[in-house]
Amino acid sequence: MINRALAALCGLMAASLAAAEPLPVEEVAPGVFVHQGAVAPMSEANRGAIANIGFIVGDDAVAVVDTGGSVEEGRALLEAVRAETDRPVRYVVNTHKHPDHIFGNRAFQAEGVVFVGSARLPAALAQSGDHYLAANHALLGDDMIGEVEIVPPALLVEEELALDLGGRKLMLRAWPAAHTDNDLTVLDVATKTLFAGDLVFLDHIPALDGSILGWLAAIDALAEIDAERVVPGHGPASAPWPEALEPQRRYLTAVADGVRALISAGESIAAAPARVAPDERGRWQLFEEFHARNVTTAFAELEWE
Questions:
Q1: Cα-flanking dihedrals φ and ψ of residue 300, to 5°?
Q2: % helix / strand / coil in the chain, to the nearest 5?
């Protein structure tokens, strides 16, 4: 009886995998494909598919950049790769630790790929992985969270690393603390397309989980990258470079200046969210969901300047 039940379950799982539809993707540059995530918090309704994720096709192999907010989305991304090319997936690059970018990793384990990330990513996942699973359990449900496995990178980027897909070079760069303490960018040299992960937000308000001073410094360094377009972590599938940096530069500068002014005036952290950067309210989606947390995180950092 148990064996028959197990066989039936395996059959259902196989049918589910076989029935996966390719994730809709846009070719933003030759051989560079992006799925545009919903500008929304992770939820059962959007199945966790809120981040921009994609892949780059070389002559010999494919590199996937982030895998989405569920194993289901990761499988659909793999189907999108297969719909475009029969070349194998050689690398999965995770741009940072957040669930909407890594919860799909398990879908690629059977492909024999090498997972790549910042040298600080394994520690970040070890510290936060269980919390992310628990925190998103109510949002995504038993079935979706039950499939997720926290997969740390095997190939680590200390500063910079080049990947060769066959006639196509990718330059990976690890960044000091900014959006998180484990941010990584991927530059496709051939098309000058920069996958920035959550170092770049458009439309969706930036979410601070690292250092506001580090992020402002990173914006200046990012602007020097020789790219023509960027794939932001959230927002449109691609945008002109480096103009795409300006909205978040304006926002983060307004937050830093506003927080410093309150600190100088001896105001408490409790007063900060309502009084810092009020003009930014109508310029971003999800302002109410993230602004207060951004301001309190910045306050905790800047009061020790």
A1: -60, -30
A2: 45, 20, 35
Tell me phi and psi for residue 130, to 5 degrees. -65, -40
Measured CA to CA, the distance from residue 175 to residue 234 in angstroms comes to 18
DSSP 198: E
Longest dimension (CA), the chain: 72
pLDDT in tens, 2-21: 333 333 333 333 333 344 79
User: Which pTM was predicted?
Assistant: 0.92
DSSP conformational letter for 108: G
pLDDT per position as a tens digit, 273-282: 999 999 999 9
How distant, in Å, are the alpha carbons of 195, 220, 236 from that of 183? 11, 15, 20
DSSP string, 4-55: HHHHHHHHHHHHHHHTPPPPP-EEEETTEEEEPPPSS---TTTTT--S-EEE
Of the candidates 197, 232, 204, the one whose C-alpha atom is nearest the C-alpha of residue 290 is 204
Q: Are strands 229-234 and 193-201 parallel, antiparallel or unpaired?
A: parallel
Report how far residue 207's alpha carbon sits from residue 236's, in angstroms, rounded to the nearest whole number: 17
Name 300's Cβ contacts closer than 8 Å, sequence gap at least 6.
Answer: 269
pLDDT in tens, 254-268: 999 999 999 999 999
- Cβ density class 251-287: b for 16+ within 10 Å, e for less: bbebbbebbbebbeeeeeeeebbeebbeebeeebbbb
> How far apart are alpha carbons 108 and 91 in whole angstroms?
9
Show me where the domains of the chain are located. Answer: 20-241
Q: Where are the alpha helices (DSSP H) in the chain?
A: 2-18, 71-84, 99-102, 121-140, 142-147, 212-222, 246-264, 272-275, 287-302
We find that the CATH architecture of domain 20-241 is: 4-Layer Sandwich (3.60)
